[in-house]
Amino acid sequence: MLRAGIVGLPNVGKSTLFNAITRTRKAESANYPFCTIDPNVGVVTVPDDRLDPLAEIAKTSTIIPTSFEFVDIAGLVQGAAAGEGLGNKFLSHIREVDAIIQVIRCFEDDDIHHVSGSIDPIRDIETIVTELVLADMDSVQNSMNRRAKDAKRGDKTAKAEFEVLEKVLPHLNDGKPASTLELSDEEAEILKPFFLLTAKPTIFAANVKEGDLADADSNPYVKQVKDYALKHHDCETVVISAQIESDLVDLEAEEAADFLQEMGVSESGVGSMIRSTYHLLGLRTFFTAGEKEVRAWTIHEGDKAPQAAGVIHTDFERGFIKAETVAYQDLVDCGSVAAARDKGLYRMEGKDYVVKDGDVMLFRFNV
Fold first, then answer.
1. Is the pTM of this model over 0.90?
2. Residue 221: helix, strand or coil by DSSP?
3. Distance CA 328, CA 282 (A)
4. What pairs with residue 156 in β-bridges?
5. Where are the beta strands (DSSP E) in the chain?
6. Nearest-5° angle of CA 229, CA 233, CA 234?
7. In this predicted model, what pLDDT tens digit does every residue of 285-331 receive, in sequence order?
8. Are 79 and 11 within 8 A, CB to CB?
9. DSSP character for 320?
């Protein structure tokens, strides 16, 4: 299962957010640095408005959404790359996740200590990015040293790896994350096995006070984060209020909706963040729908029908024959599989079919 790691400076709301996302109280939240030491891990379901309409069509009350893992990682401080604070442990935990959600404090509160003594979102982002870049520079330099001799001897693999790393190092030295370096598809594939921290896809989560969520666009800190993230990281920023999300954990769905309405917002920021992270990881959803259950399944963008079948069971992929497929919107518009079939919207697809997000599928196989 793919993992997204929640990172940030101490006391920015990481553990509170983790508890809200996973609807648990697993992560201790307190007003002092390094409250989180060992990472907390929780499985998160992905909100999907398409499941209920499919359940109505299939005449079932059993709905199973798709999911992935979130990891709450210890707070980072300046000097982490040199081992300060929990630096080495922090960096090793980040290396194990597939994507990063960097939580940025965008609110003033004298009762909640900030490790740097003041609120400055851009400084906080640059502190974390600098530590990740320094760790990557050390990793790249060590990797280059190990490959230099083999590259000179004519080892083609070592030579190709050395050349890509040689291209990455000055980019990092300029303080820029590896994810913003322009590489060819071939170079990007060569770089993947080095698991650079700054090459991981990233989302910024601007954490605002409870009363600021409804009008977050007017928050100057949020605007700074959005502008900086787009310009320097070419990535998305989602606005959340970790405190509101924490308050929602113990509420039923209807109560939570009423609470959000009173706050002047239509949706929980966590729902948006989960969906954004899901797509950031390159994940897509297809559905199976029958009287027994309606279920969402996770695939990677670009997966073909046999690979999608294999997500359900390896025998489905091994003995794949064909996939009966209808697009979600077509099925909903028609109201039934029979009506979609009559209109020619229910198709038979073979092994080369690239599954699209929202496809409703039934696999035929023989083992």
1. no
2. helix
3. 20
4. none
5. 3-7, 40-45, 63-64, 67-72, 99-105, 202-207, 237-240, 283-289, 294-300, 320-327, 347-349, 359-365
6. 85
7. 999 999 999 999 999 999 999 999 999 999 999 999 999 999 999 99
8. no
9. E
